[in-house]
Amino acid sequence: MLIIFYPLFWIIMNSLKTSTELFINSFALPEKPLFQNYIDAWNMGFSKFFFNSILVTASSVAVTVLLSAFCAYALARLDIKFKNLILYLIIGGLLLSPHSALISLYKIFDALNIYNTYFAMIVPYIAFRIPFAVFLMYGYFKDFPGDLEDAARIDGCSTLKIFMRIVMPISKPIIAATTIVSSIFTWNEFIFALVFIESEELVTIPVGLSRFRDALQTNWTGMMAGIVLASLPMIIAFLFMSKSFIRGLTAGSVKG
Amino acid sequence: MNKKKYFNYFYVIPAILFVLIFVYFPIIMNFYNSFFRMTSYSDTKTFVGFAHYIKMFNDPIFYTAIKNNFLYAGFSILFQVGLGMILAILLEGRFIGKRIGTFFRNSLFIPSIISIPAVALLWYFIYNPQIGLLNGMLDLVGLEQLKTAWLANPKTAIYSVIMMSQWQYTGYIMVLLIVSIQKIPKELYESAVIDGANEFQKAIYITIPSIKSMLAVTTIITFIGSFKLFSEIFIMTGGGPYNTTQVLGTYMYRAAFKFDEMGFGSAVAVIIFAITFAISIFQLKSFKTT
Amino acid sequence: MSKKVLAILLVVAFVFSSFVLAETVNLKLLHRWTQEPDKSFFEEVVKEFEAMHPDVNVDIQTVSNDSFKEKITVMLGTADAPDIFFTWPGEFTNRFIRAGRVMDITSYMLEDGSMFEYVGSQLIPFVYQGALYGLPYRLDGKVFVYNKEMFAKAGIDKAPETLDEFMEDLEKLAALGMKPIAFGNERPWAVSHYIAALNQKSVPEDVWEKDIDPAVGTWSHPGYVEALHIYEDLVPYFNDYTNALKHDQARVAFMQGQHAMMYLEIVEIPEIGRNGPEGFIDKIGAFPFPATDGPGNQSYLVGYPEGFVVNSNTKHPEEAVAFLKFLTGRQMGRLELERLGWFNGIKNLVTPDEVKPIIYETTQLILNSDRMVNWLDSSLHAKIWAVYSVELQKLTDKVTTPEKVMEAVKKIATEVRKEF
Fold first, then answer.
1. B75 in Cβ contact with A207 (< 8 Å)
2. ipTM field
3. Do B151 and C244 touch (CB under 8 A)?
4. Which superfamily is assigned to B52-289 in CATH?
5. Per-residue pLDDT tens for B90-126?
């Protein structure tokens, strides 16, 4: 317990100090808490990183969940040829490591003219999350009872209407779980953002944070404040929704 | 009716296109690229056959990298699965109350949802020889002689990075195992109690055998995770000191984006692909049995 | 119903869609300063320029220092390449020139005589095969900055000029019970500056010039080993954990008075003024790397200007060059000095009484130097530097010998030569 918390406590404490205090004694409590470091970190780029992270996460997760729900539903419930082939093809994507696609994706994005734009993050995030999302949802859709759908179909509803009005509402738990897992992945993703984005103006929090340190003149305590700022949103979300988090992450058993 | 059936395909086409174009195609292209010499700022491509692979197999840093990936996997399985299992059994056993159990579980889980760069930078500060927490602690308990520049000392650097990951992920694996333990039917334990089994015997004879398949799954995902290693190394050591902490991910990045040898980088990516794909097949099989 | 599906397909199509065409002249500027006060300086330059040229719109992009070298290489290969970009002159820029990515601006500079506004020695680094490709944004050079009080305490009355004097002074300072030299080499560009100075002093000029060219360099001159022997002698005077500390962490220790001197870039001195303890900047002096008895020229200074160049594929060469001249010209040079404390390459930018003595002095060192010697890390082929830097870190840790270091460098140089 101490091993988990003391490092977190230590960094929060030091993020409230002046640089001189930090260098003299990193164990002492700050003389008086200095929230200026947080303001500095925020102004030195964190406001932008946050905006970028939210934009990229929200759009890629929304598209991922929507497309995967359609796909998983069709594969589980509708009449389509080559169902198994398509299912294996998509879920097979889970076996492929993003690292192996990195260099070619860079070439492709360059050719498509979307290198160094938000799309260079959003597109691969969607592509690499769909297999996982389909995998989670397919199992769920496959299992639920068909009576409601049948009733609706007899009433003359189209498949899309059935999907929107009946299937989606009762699938809330799995949609929530998929959304959470995809959000954690996207929010924390590093290597694609590192390689596909050049401009400081477009980077997300993880890359922004790592570049923070690199400038010749490093603001150490501001950096520590940055670490805390970067971690807080996920921790807060977790504290409020720990059950959904755990359900989502354990259902998939795949590490970020 | 026919028209409607045709319409059904629209549900699956966007997802298929995404996966085909941005997952499968790049990986196939990567195989192809590994046989060419090319740079990012000019458009020429020269066919070099297996030259990149031959060069890689003759490069000692390549073997350091693979060795580090395996070392990382070994420690991660030992800590995350081994220690994670012990913690899971303790938290689910009768040793502590349910409330405290949940509290401990959630606390241990927290590091795994913090982004890797944030955790890596946190530990980068912890390992700092002058202001770092670790050397400071050693001073406090009178073990000054153990103080070192953790990330710059070739003897300690890779282990320092490995230990950070254990801090981050043990709780995550533990939670996976807890979920699995909770699914064990209570009757099994009740009959064991009637037979006079103590907590330790219950763990050995009931809990562990019942979560065998989950243990297999967590072992495999930990293994695969070890070969996707990149950000931790990139941020904490950049592969140094003296390339002793290179792993396949950083080795590939270095070739492709530092030395501008995209073809050679692709060849390294093929090796990463081969290893993770092979292990993933195992994972798929174990999914089927659970 | 199918409208909804269409809408979804449109969303997907949107993802692939490319850019909207612009009406005014859009220029992209790429620089590498992600933090204040530099960032707002560039914003101000752009604002002023746009006010003078209402039809031009300049977008600023930034990539931080440590990743800049990798990123610019990649970026120039893409359609998103900037029109005007920061670069380090020398081999780093020359390879882009060879690949036809950098515009020759000679005629633009001669046309209106603006070439003669600049200090000649600071334009030379931007010349490649007789043509001018860029303009200096800030001058830089490497000097030992020392704490005058500590030198006085150790009984040293003047800055050392030769290596022998330097070693004696180090001994005197060490006798006060300290490590005299602050040095953070976690990123080994720091050690490269020492070695650039020592190589240049220990090896004849024509030899090191040839060795820097990856197509022919052999690195077989014994002077390189000699240079490392001198470096080895300095190692005991460095602070502990050299390879574990970042350059700026060591600088903090120097500013706090834990060490007597540090090998610094002249451009760091204004930062010491801004971030150091009150009055610290008035207590420091500077001297160039002491002379050795090697065969190299002893009056050269390590350091190179940094500058900007124009992309040869730019759609608006006139406007891009105009911006380049504006950014590196007199008016902005004054502003740069005022805001950031740096000099650009314009002649007679200030009178001595306008700036702190230490800043004027060190800038004169640059302007009076017979020749500037490029930073080692940016002048070497990336693969040679990768090996060289690892070996230098080992040497700093005392786990290898100068002879072994150069064996490794020779081996990788041979491999690299084959690629040309």
1. no
2. 0.89
3. yes
4. MetI-like (1.10.3720.10)
5. 888 766 777 788 888 888 889 998 999 999 999 999 9
